[in-house]
Amino acid sequence: MKPQKTQEVxxxxxxxSILIIDFGSQVTQLIARRIRELGVYCEIKNSKIxxxxxxNFNPNGIIFSGGPCSVYEENSPTISKEIFxxxxxxxxxxxxxxxxxxxxxxxxxxxxxxxxGKAEIxxxxxSPLLKNIKNYQVWMSHGDKVNKIPxxxxxxxxxDNAPFAVIANQEKKIYAVQFHPExxxxxxxxxxIKNFVVDIAKSKQEWTMKNFKEEQILAIREKVGExxxxxxxxxxxxxxxxxVLISNAINRQLTCIFVDxxxxxxxxxxxVKKIFTENFDINFIYVDASELFIGRLKNISDPEKKxxxxxxxxxxxxxxxxxxxxxAKFLAQGTLYPDVIESLHPNQGVSQTIxxxxxxxxxxKRMKFKLIEPLRMLFKDEVRVLGKELGLPDIVVxxxxxxxxxxxxxxxxxxxxxxIKILQNADAIYIEEIKKAGxxxxxxxxxxxxxxxxxxxxxxxCRTYESVLALRAVTSVDGMTADIYHFDSHLLAKISNRxxxxxxxxxxxVYDYTSKxxxxxxxx
Length: 524
Ligand code: XMP
Prior knowledge:
Helix content is 31%, strand content 24%. It has 14 helices and 19 strands. The protein has helices at 28-37, 51-57, 95-103, 189-200, 209-224, 237-250, 268-279, 290-296, 303-323, 337-342, 380-389, 394-397, 417-436, 489-502, and strands spanning 17-22, 41-46, 61-64, 90-93, 107-120, 122-123, 137-148, 154-158, 166-169, 174-177, 228-232, 254-260, 283-288, 328-332, 370-372, 445-459, 462-475, 483-484, 506-511. The strands form four sheets. It has an eight-stranded mixed beta sheet, sandwiched between helices. A five-stranded parallel beta sheet has the order 13-12-11-14-15, with helices on both faces. Strands 16, 17, 18 and 19 form a four-stranded mixed beta sheet that branches. Helix 6 (237-250) crosses helix 11 and helix 13 runs antiparallel to helix 14. The longest helix has 21 residues, at 303-323. The radius of gyration is 26 Å and the shape is globular. The relative contact order is 0.09. Bound molecules: xanthosine-5'-monophosphate (XMP).
């Protein structure tokens, strides 16, 4: 089906919103997730945000996140006291509670012991924040604690260890909790956030992907004008959604370039080509550059070298095609909100490089394009909903993530065409069986890895000496951490059997039982 041009048009930004001020907690994103699940738009901003910027954002409510620092330390993140005069409801969480108390004349000090884990709150005073709470288990994680609450505040709930677990200045609508309502271990935490966002801050639950799509279509049209846009389409969820969204806005002013490096999953190149040329009215350029890539990767075993060669070659090939498009002024990218938030973090850039070049689509700044990143305010699951709204098939919208360097980092050691074929065939059987068992959507990522190890086997009456294949499957929310997926062992046995019988070159299959950390998801 060809996409419909949007008729109804949302005029402007969401009618309600919440501003989350990030004081450096590892789980700030979860606050945003909980709010978006309520159908309310929210953004996370660094604590350096100015009062003028807050006024400009004009939120219905403000949430102060937790954070790792101590309010009384020099250079710990803080915020202007004027924020309390804006007459906007505020909820402080953990460090957020401490900063409220510290700035408004209370006292914060070191707790005798770090408190980490479950606690039970006892409600001592009625408050709209704790309305309809039925389960009192909350999750604590803090080293400091409030010793004296500011004037005008009262205690709403306590725990055995925390006399100020929940405090409120009901008149000024400033609330603060010592625990983390955003994490699942605070059983009714999502309700507490809803009470704040919907009842106290009076946000309307009107933020939907349909509205978002319409707003973005308008914004893209306005930004692009008469110019041309190019987009590196990989067939993954993010770049597919970006492409279709932009094509809805500007039709054939968009050209998508799909570079096939020859290291894709079995039939993937043909499938992507089919989906985009048959279902959508898009300028689609398919570049088969597999010979070039595989030639350059010959005899290369080092994973970082593989990544660098692939990244460099990708840019070269993409650039060549892009230069053929006249008046191309914009480059569309599928940047997501977690990448944007990451760049807000105070210590970003200092973490160690575990794997370089996580995004083959990341083109160098010297390419003189302006960026269009219409997904930069969305989380992955929201992108999937948007994809469905745009009419993308489930096979694209629900596809497991696939690394830019593709099978190059799943063939351990040097790459040959024969090894690519073996891995593609084995991987296809694995995924087919997972889909047949109805498990594909439960798993974040499942794939096979071809090892440079040969072992002895016996097939029929003959001795074999062939490669070992490892299977990996993990669950995850964002790929940053991951858990092992626990298959039924009979299913694993069936998959192993099929692979050994059907794929010549493999005579042993093993399953990877490593979470991340300490392992990474990919093997290289
Ligand atoms: P790791 O292996 O670092 O992977 O635990 C986390 C997520 O990132 C993907 N990944 C990559 N994606 N280029 C990419 O575009 C890469 O070089 C790359 N390495 C890993 C991986 O598939 C997983 O989803």
